[in-house]
């Protein structure tokens, strides 16, 4: 059978279009909705098999090239969820124009693009940061069973961000900077004074996870160490990036030792 015709889509259909077509069929053909149809289970397995193959980039390529013969070693589509799952949980963001659902290939391309942007722009340019949010790439998947509020999702995600954020003060700041520079790693430092915008603790933790291996992330309390912040030419809260090799001794540098 033609998997594309089974789902009522073209051979050029996107992953989202495939998912939308399958959901539409699932809501009407699911055995839970057809308890008196003895063939409902087999019919649903057929469209489920088509969906499982076409949603997978590699399997879809095999199918497009060889047909079902190319899938003889694959067993996708033998299991499915309840009708309630397809109604309330499956593809819930497909109709939201502000949410982009990426397939595996698109996701890896986007992650690589973001990495390049951070590496070429953020790491080598002195920046002032606001709030930056990024989904960590290529992590092992973790199941989440809580509610979908922003606070709950953020709390769940942040438990997997274990990268260290260093509080910098007179006793460690230059040792920490020297060690990082020796390893060709820069520093992203949030200076927190009485005025201006100081990055929140959670935002600093997010940045540390996002930029792990590229820069170290730290913060300095200018209300406790005003002289030290003054030596960095800091008079108000700000966040700045210091690429490796920034001078610690050059007169006029923001990194002049006190």
Q: Segments where pLDDT lies below 50 for 5+ residues?
A: 120-138, 248-258
Overall pLDDT confidence: 78
Give the H and E element order: HHHHHHHEHEHEHE
CATH architecture annotation of the largest domain: 3-Layer(aba) Sandwich
Number of strands: 4
Report the CATH C-level class of the largest domain.
Answer: Alpha Beta
Q: What fraction of the residues are assigned to beta strands by DSSP?
A: 5-15%
**Percentage of residues assigned to helices:** 40-55%
Q: Sheet bearing the most strands, described?
A: 4 strands, mixed
Number of separate domains:
2
What can you tell me about this protein's structure?
The protein is of the alpha/beta class and about 260 residues long. The chain has two domains: about 5-90, DnaJ domain (Helix Hairpins, Orthogonal Bundle); about 120-258, Glutaredoxin (3-Layer(aba) Sandwich). The protein has ten helices and four strands, in the order H-H-H-H-H-H-H-E-H-E-H-E-H-E. It has helices at about 5, 15-30, 40-55, 55-65, 85-90, 105-120, 150-160, 175-180, 200-210, 225-230, and strands at about 165, 185-190, 215-220, 240. The chain has a four-stranded mixed β-sheet. Strand 2, helix 9 (about 200-210) and strand 3 form a beta-alpha-beta unit. Helix 2 packs antiparallel against helix 3 (about 40-55). The chain is elongated. The N and C termini lie far apart (about 75 Å). Keywords: Membrane, Transmembrane, Transmembrane helix.
Question: How would you describe this structure in keywords?
Answer:
258 residues; alpha/beta; Helix Hairpins; Glutaredoxin; 10 helices; disordered C terminus; J_dom_sf; transmembrane helix; membrane
């Amino acid at each position: 059978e033609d998997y594309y015709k089974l789902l009522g889509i073209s051979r050029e259909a996107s992953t989202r279009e495939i998912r939308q077509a399958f959901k539409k069929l699932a809501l009407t053909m699911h055995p839970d909705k057809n308890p008196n149809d003895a063939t409902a289970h087999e019919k649903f397995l057929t469209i489920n098999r088509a969906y499982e193959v076409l949603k997978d980039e590699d399997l879809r390529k095999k199918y497009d090239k060889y047909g079902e013969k190319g899938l003889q070693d694959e067993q996708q589509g033998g299991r499915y969820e309840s009708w309630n799952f397809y109604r309330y949980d499956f593809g819930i963001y497909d109709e939201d124009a502000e949410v982009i659902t990426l397939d595996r290939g698109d996701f890896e391309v986007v992650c690589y693009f973001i990495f390049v942007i951070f590496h070429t722009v953020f790491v080598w340019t002195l920046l002032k940061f606001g709030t930056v949010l990024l989904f960590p790439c290529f992590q092992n998947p973790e199941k989440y069973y809580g509610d979908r509020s922003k606070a709950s999702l953020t709390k769940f995600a942040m438990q997997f961000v274990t990268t260290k954020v260093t509080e910098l003060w007179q006793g460690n700041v230059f040792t920490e900077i020297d060690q990082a520079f020796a390893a060709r790693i820069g520093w992203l430092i949030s200076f927190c004074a009485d005025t201006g915008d100081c990055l929140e603790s959670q935002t600093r933790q997010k940045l540390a996870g996002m930029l792990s291996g590229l820069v170290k992330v730290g913060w300095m309390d200018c209300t406790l160490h005003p002289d030290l912040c003054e030596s960095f030419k800091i008079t108000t809260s700000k966040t700045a990036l210091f690429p490796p090799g920034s001078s610690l001794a050059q007169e006029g540098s923001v990194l002049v030792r006190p």
